[in-house]
Amino acid sequence: MSTELDALLRAALADPSALHALTPEAERALAASLRAALGAEEPTAAAAPVPTGASAAWGADDLLTAPEAAAMLKISPRWLYRHAKTLPFARRLSRKVLRFSRAGIARWLATKRP
């Protein structure tokens, strides 16, 4: 394992919240070095690549519809649609399909509320 990845891993163990600031490339490099250190094989075809985009929160968590996310946030679905471009947990799946990350909403609420 390179010294840079070793330092990154030590920092992540000391402060796990630092993992949210990693770029997708750094995440892949860290995961590959951990697999190599553990003697694991290359990822299987079932493991989907992490899409590059606005957030590292994208993953295997649940994606909610606007009414489901609105109920979780206690706001209207219309408000979610109007502010989707500025919300870090909004995921546009296609031109007309918008979903919201359950884990992303939980993290956003944790930072917004005391």
| Structural class by SSE content | mainly alpha
Strand order of the largest sheet: 1-3-2
State the low-pLDDT regions, or none.
44-60
Q: How many discrete structural domains?
A: 2
Our measurement of the CA-to-CA distance between the termini, rounded to an integer number of angstroms, reads 39 Å
Helix segment count? 5
Principal-axis shape equals elongated
Report the C-alpha radius of gyration, rounded.
17 Å
Helical residues, percent: 40-55%
Main pleated-sheet profile: 3 strands, antiparallel
Overall pLDDT confidence: 77
Overview of this protein structure:
With 114 residues, this protein is mostly helical. Helix 3 (66-73) crosses helix 4 (77-83). The chain has five helices and three strands, in the order ααβααββα. The model is unreliable at 44-60 (pLDDT under 50). A hairpin with a 5-residue loop joins strand 2 and strand 3 (98-101). It has helices at 3-14, 24-38, 66-73, 77-83, 102-112; strands at 63-64, 90-92, 98-101. The radius of gyration is 17 Å and the shape is elongated. It has a three-stranded antiparallel β-sheet. The protein has two domains: 3-38; 63-112.
In short:
The chain has 114 residues and is mainly alpha-helical. It has helices spanning 3-14, 24-38, 66-73, 77-83, 102-112; strands spanning 63-64, 90-92, 98-101. Helix 3 crosses helix 4 (77-83).
Tags for this model:
single chain, 114 residues, mainly alpha, three-stranded antiparallel sheet, 5 helices, 3 strands, 46% helix
What are the SSEs and their pairings?
Layout: H1 3-14, H2 24-38, E1 63-64, H3 66-73, H4 77-83, E2 90-92, E3 98-101, H5 102-112
Antiparallel strand pairs: 1-3, 2-3
